[in-house]
Design a protein that fits this description.
By secondary structure, the protein is mainly alpha-helical. Helices cover 74% and strands 0% of the residues. It contains 14 helices and no strands.
Length: 334
Amino acid sequence: MLRFVVRRLLLLVPILLGLSILVFLWIRNLPGGPAIALLGERATPETIAQINRQYGLDEPLPVQYWRYLKKISTAEFGESTRTRRPVVEEFKERFPATIELAVAAGLFAVIIGIPLGFLAAKRYQGVLDHTSLVLSLVGISTPIFFLALILKYIFAVKLGLLPSVGRIGILIEIDHPTNFYTLDALLAGDIGAFVDVGKHLVLPAIALGSIPLAIIARITRAAVLDVQNEDYVRTARAKGLAPFTVDQRHVLRNAMLPISTIIGLQVGLLLSGAVLTETVFAFPGIGSWLVEAIKNRDYPVIQGGVLFVAVIVVFVNLLVDLSYAILNPRIRLS
């Protein structure tokens, strides 16, 4: 197992290096350029040339990339051109919100999606099976922003049951030492604040988790249908094992291989920032942060934020590989 982990970690080095090159070149080819973004209305050919000299933007690309690589290796991503704050600090403030939303959406998708897909497979061609297929198709085909607006209209505007924007009520005052509002509320011993934070998570988590839920349900159904006809499952049933034991030990465990892959990929996408969901619900996470940076041509934030997101997705894929090795020991030898 240790050799498997070491091999996977070594493979991350060229992947992360390639990502840094792609992000670097992409930022350098965006229209306008960092100098114009910094100067705004004061941009003239002379001032643009001065800024380019000051930040080394007039040097050859290999020289610029080497300087950029040395900086990011020490977690130095520069300052936002809009707020004049370090990019790392802004990321630390925003990322906890995205983690909370991604975890809530992921739990919603997994807790409902796996049982729904499993029961649909066990009742193949039945009413539940057909219903789950229809619901999954609807979930996949419904745009997130449209579902988000519908949820806001029903549960926030019409029924008034849940809040529609933000992470916490404006009248609630608690310290945020971790920027994980659920954890901060628990540390402060404020149950009311904890409940309020949970209410703010419900609607965006449902909107964000709808597509992953549909995908997980479909993959679970297909995986269970494939596994339950295998010889070892029929043998287990012939031995007289209880149906629950067969389903738990032989069917579901082996079906979890493709399911874990899909869950990992979906969680990686959720952690990379839900742009539409965070925008509709005014949720201050990574997605809305990058949208603001693009609107303001805040190149240091765009460069650092995109690289952060890419690294997160890469490491989530690593965790998926590790989960594969745990579920199927034969993969450790590959």
